Amino acid sequence: MFPDFLENPSDVVAPLLLGCTLTRTITLNGEKHKLVARIVETEAYDQDDPASHAFGGFSERNAAMFGPAGHLYVYVSYGMHHCCNVVCGSEGFGSGCLVRAVEPLEGIEVMRILREAGHAHKHPLKLRDLTNGPGKVCAALGVDKGLYRHDLKVEPLILDFAPLLPGETIDRSPRVGISKNADALKRFFIEGNTFVSKS
């Protein structure tokens, strides 16, 4: 079931995305695979926030953030890592939630292949290291600029609502790796989850 809360402000949406799932359909070596991951960490951004890509107004790069809620904003970080945001809020107001970490549920071996592609590792990546960061999420799910503005209601990447598991709680903190508005408590995560990027 597609989430019904995405038209709210990013500060509201970011914690509600925790527990929701992303289902990625991908073809690898001629074979179709289904990858499923559960969102465990998010960060909220909007056009009034100096740390946001939407700050300063609409541009060719950030156009997706000003579009309809429920689509994907994909960008490249540090010239090498793809990162993705679930666009939220009212259309015309730049707003999105960074998917910072996910918990792999299905298709883990394919995620591992995608994560290790082009990289030499002496040892296989530990499970917790597959998707515990925004660049890792996109690498493991095969998300790149080809999915810019993708509608998350349809394949090859679908967002579905799922509640927190019994006993799970949400914590919040300042966001990670930013210099502007650095003290704002706009990072949300499932407390104690192994796949959260930083405790």
Structure description:
The protein is mainly β and about 200 residues long. The chain has a single domain (about 5-190), classed as Roll (3-methyladenine DNA Glycosylase, Chain A), CATH 3.10.300. The protein has three helices and eight strands; from the N terminus they run αβββββααβββ. The protein has helices at about 10-15, 110-115, 135-140, and strands at about 20-30, 30-45, 70-75, 80-85, 95-105, 155-160, 170-175, 185-190. Strands 1, 2, 3, 4, 5, 6, 7 and 8 form an eight-stranded antiparallel beta sheet that branches. The longest helix has 9 residues, at about 110-115. The two termini are about 30 Å apart.
List the helices and strands and how they pair.
Blueprint: H1 10-16, E1 21-28, E2 31-46, E3 72-77, E4 81-87, E5 95-106, H2 108-116, H3 134-141, E6 157-160, E7 170-173, E8 187-190
Antiparallel strand pairs: 1-2, 1-6, 2-5, 2-8, 3-4, 4-5, 7-8
